[in-house]
């Protein structure tokens, strides 16, 4: 997998900073529990999954909670989903199931956007506009669109209607957005302020390259009126727009993911048997390990083996570090069943230990009753297998 993907993930991962500030693993877990309590009503499930399945979405919820307007969008998404399930659980689950393939595809496309993202600081204004508007168009078309259409159908269920899922999926995105805003009776979700331009129009601007660079401004035209409407943005404003769109994607994605976790026992029979993309697994693993003071530097999949490079962010001051092998090898094995796993443990840029297990060994181990395997590792440049 491409290293720049992990570099991007680490850039926005807050857990390592908490450890740098002196936090303990228990304190990090409690911070996640406190953050997610309004959204995960089952306290037992929340505590069981806080530093594993929920770690990625905790990052997103934390980012959205940093500003009142972003949190309002997140809470609106949760409210729509919860009202739909309370109104007609089966129909709400049908909506989630129907859009699952498109959501999985959106996750793949978002990973590609991250992988091929390039630094923009040294670009001239016309280069910057071309690159960022192109990215914004892809973000809306291939990432935001399926989430928006799913939430629109979910709102219909919450309102006591039975949406035609196939028709909505095939519908022009602009029509969906227009009907969605009317049904919501507010614009904060689909029309980022202060520009007052709905996301489908930003998609059209990107697709039709309907903008010019004039002096220090990027001037975009949109709509079917005569003359067309215009909006002018400075370089910093275009970047702010991209951030607003990413935050809306985060609100749509995390509200969905957490809702699925809340109802997974009932919802699972409805979901199609689709495998999440590899980058989604890697993101979840990286966030989970980071909550305990470890950084996933790379994940290589080749020849039936998954090799993870994990750095200890908060190594002990002495020469011993308690390491739960199961939190590495077992967790990776659960994501990639039938695969051998090797974990290369790195401290202060030195590879000091390797933990490994074959696919056959892992198959036997994963069938055993839950238990914790602890190895007290001496911080020396040596390599041993885990059995």
Strand order of the largest sheet: 4-5-7-8
Query: Which shape, going by the Cα principal axes?
Result: globular
Intertermini distance: 27 Å
Radius of gyration: 23 Å
Domains, number:
2
Overall pLDDT confidence: 88
SS class:
alpha+beta
* Helix content class: 55-70%
Key attributes of the depicted protein:
387 residues, alpha+beta, 2 domains, 4-stranded mixed β-sheet
Secondary structure layout plus pairing:
Blueprint: H1 3-11, H2 15-20, H3 25-36, H4 43-49, H5 55-64, H6 68-87, H7 89-115, H8 125-158, H9 165-170, H10 173-184, H11 199-208, E1 211-214, E2 217-222, E3 229-233, H12 235-262, H13 264-267, H14 278-290, E4 294-302, E5 305-312, E6 320-324, H15 325-335, E7 340-347, E8 350-357, H16 359-366, E9 374-378
Parallel strand pairs: 5-7
Antiparallel strand pairs: 1-2, 2-3, 4-5, 6-9, 7-8
Helix pairs in contact: 5-12, 6-7, 6-8, 6-12, 7-8, 8-10, 8-11, 8-12
What does this structure look like?
This protein is of the alpha+beta class and 387 residues long. It is 56% helix and 15% strand. It folds into 2 domains: 219 residues, no CATH class; 86 residues, no CATH class. The protein is built from 16 helices and 9 strands. The strands form 3 sheets. It has a 4-stranded mixed sheet. β1 and β2 form a beta hairpin. The longest helix has 34 residues. The protein is globular.
Task: Quickly describe the structure.
By secondary structure, the protein is of the alpha+beta class.
């Amino acid at each position: 997998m491409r290293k720049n993907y992990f570099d991007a993930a680490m850039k926005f991962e807050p857990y390592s900073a908490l450890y740098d500030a002196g936090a303990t693993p228990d304190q990090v877990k409690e911070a996640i529990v406190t953050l997610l309590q309004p959204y995960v009503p089952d306290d037992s499930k929340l505590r069981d999954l806080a530093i594993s399945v929920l770690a990625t979405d905790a990052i997103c919820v934390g980012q959205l909670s940093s500003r009142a307007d972003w949190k309002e969008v997140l809470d609106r998404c949760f409210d729509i989903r919860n009202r739909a399930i309370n109104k007609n659980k089966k129909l709400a689950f049908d909506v989630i199931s129907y859009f699952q393939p498109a959501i999985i595809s959106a996750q793949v496309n978002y990973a590609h956007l991250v992988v091929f993202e390039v630094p923009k600081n040294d670009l001239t204004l016309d280069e910057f506009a071309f690159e960022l508007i192109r990215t914004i168009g892809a973000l809306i078309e291939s990432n935001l669109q399926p989430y928006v259409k799913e939430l629109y159908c979910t709102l219909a269920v919450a309102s006591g209607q039975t949406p035609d899922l196939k028709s909505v999926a095939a519908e022009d995105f602009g029509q969906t957005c227009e009907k969605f805003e009317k049904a919501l009776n507010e614009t904060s979700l689909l029309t980022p302020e202060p520009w007052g331009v709905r996301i489908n129009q930003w998609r059209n601007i990107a697709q039709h390259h309907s903008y010019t660079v004039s002096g220090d401004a990027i001037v975009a035209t949109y709509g079917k009126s005569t003359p067309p409407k215009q909006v002018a943005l400075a370089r910093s404003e275009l970047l702010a727009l991209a951030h607003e769109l990413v935050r809306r994607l985060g609100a749509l994605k995390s509200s969905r993911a957490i809702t699925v976790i809340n109802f997974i026992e009932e919802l699972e029979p409805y979901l199609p048997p689709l495998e999440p993309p590899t980058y989604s697994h890697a993101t979840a693993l990286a966030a989970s390990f980071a909550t305990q003071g470890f950084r996933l530097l790379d994940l290589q999949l080749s020849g039936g083996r998954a090799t993870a490079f994990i750095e200890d962010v908060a190594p002990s001051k002495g020469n011993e570090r308690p390491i739960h092998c199961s939190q590495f090898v077992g967790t990776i094995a659960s994501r990639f069943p039938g695969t051998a796993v090797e974990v290369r443990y790195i401290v202060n840029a030195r590879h000091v230990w390797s933990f490994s297990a074959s696919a056959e060994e892992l198959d036997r181990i994963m069938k055993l009753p839950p238990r914790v395997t602890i190895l007290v590792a001496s911080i020396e440049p040596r390599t041993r297998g885990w059995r």
